[in-house]
Design goal:
With 290 residues, the chain is of the alpha+beta class. It is built from eleven helices and six strands.
């Protein structure tokens, strides 16, 4: 489900009105033209004094703005702490009962699940960026009926059904899909690179690649990306024979990429996003205060 905190975070909250002190540069008294000519050397101290006064006022205004920003950052930290949820059962069960090791480095978007399966090393990676970049319209499977289809009886019934479902589901949040990059390696045999999606408690396979060099499946360097682009990718998964698709799905499931993982990933990333946001608030606050 779409993160409640992400919605609440963007909603307006009671803000402290920013108070700014009126800063005006005092105009120095202008001496007569005679005095300016006669006492020209005295202008340097006068300008220095004016510059010093202006600099002081600018520094005071800057300090006030910094203090207000720090205060707001602190209020955001307190707010995030108040809405911190308990760890979902899907996370607890997955970590306790699965063979996967979680590699999650603070400050990084990517999370990795790693395990051994016989002589295979399997890595599943996913990113918290999918949560912040989620747009429900991109994954809406309910397509609008074409004008020509609307004229048929089936088209009219379909349109009525979609309208009724839309009314029922308008208050239901869309589930956030997370892209999974699955790499299965065998020593000296290369690697399979499987692109999939974790959504609505299911693993949906998109593509099935094979690379002789496992680095092409892992690395995001320009050289690896360029090398991967030159490799024949195979047909799209959906165009394969249905029996072949089922056997490939079973192959993935037997390696622990199951419904339990499909439930774990979005819940874990929701918690990670909150942790990263709180750390970001604290880091910005500490920097400004330093």
């Amino acid at each position: 489900m779409m993160s409640f905190r992400a919605v609440a975070r963007s909603a307006p909250r009671t803000l402290t009105r920013l108070s700014s002190t009126a800063v005006r540069n005092a105009k120095a008294a202008q001496p007569s033209s005679l005095l300016r000519t006669t006492w020209a050397p005295l202008r340097t101290p006068q300008l220095a004094a004016t510059f010093s006064s202006t600099s002081w006022r600018q520094a005071a205004a800057k300090n006030e703005a910094d203090e207000e920003l720090v205060e707001k950052l602190q209020s955001e930290l307190l707010y995030e702490g108040e809405v911190k949820p308990n760890q979902p059962a899907s996370i607890t069960d997955f970590l306790k009962n699965s063979p996967w090791e979680v590699k999650d480095e603070p400050g990084k978007e990517e999370v990795y699940l790693v395990r051994k399966f016989g002589d295979e090393t399997i890595t599943v990676s996913f990113s918290v960026s999918d949560l912040s970049n989620f747009e429900p319209e991109m994954y809406d499977e309910d397509q609008i009926v074409d004008d020509e289809d609307m004229e048929t009886p089936e088209g009219k019934r379909l349109a009525e059904t979609e309208a009724e479902e839309g009314l029922e589901d308008e208050n239901v949040d869309a589930a956030v899909p997370f892209r999974l990059n699955i790499v299965v390696e065998k020593p000296g045999k290369g690697a399979l690179n499987i692109e999939a999606m974790a959504q609505d408690g299911a693993i949906l396979i998109d593509n099935f690649y094979y690379y002789k060099d496992p680095k092409m499946a892992h690395s995001s360097s320009p050289e690896a990306v360029h090398g991967a682009e030159d490799v024949y990718p195979g047909p799209t998964f959906g165009s394969l024979d249905e029996d072949l698709q089922l056997l490939m799905e079973r192959y993935v499931e037997e390696r622990g990429i199951t419904q339990a993982m499909a439930l774990f990933v979005p819940d874990y990333m929701d918690l990670k996003e909150q942790r990263e946001y709180q750390d970001w608030l604290k880091n910005v606050k500490d920097f400004i205060e330093a």
